[in-house]
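Let's sit down with a protein and look at its sequence and fold side by side. We need material for that, and I hope you will provide a protein of your own picking. Once you have written the record down, we can walk along the chain together.

***
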Amino acid sequence: MNQYESIIIVNPNVDETGLKALEEKFTGLINENGKVESVENMGKKKLAYEIKKFNEATYLLFNFEANPASITELERVYRITDDIIKYIVVRKND
C-alpha cells in the first residue's frame, strides 16, 4: 500500500450537506481498498483562473493509504461526479 494525497475542487454552489455527502462517498470508496487517514475541508477559495465558469470553489483534501490499482477507480468516479470541477491524486514519498 502506498500513501496518497488527493485534492478535489468542488462546485461552490454545493451546500454543507452536499459536501458531507461527497466526503462520505469518497471516504467509503477509498476504504474499500485502503484506509483514509484524514479529510480536511479547506473551505471556499478564489480560483487562480476560471474553471467551468466558476471563479471560486470549495477544496477537500484527502490523505489516505491505498493499493495503486484502486486509484484508477477513484479517478474514474471523480470524473463522473458532476459537482467536482477538478481533482488531483498524488503519491507521497516516504
Remarks:
- The mean pLDDT is 91.
- Helices lie at 16-32, 68-80.
- DSSP finds two helices and four strands in the chain.
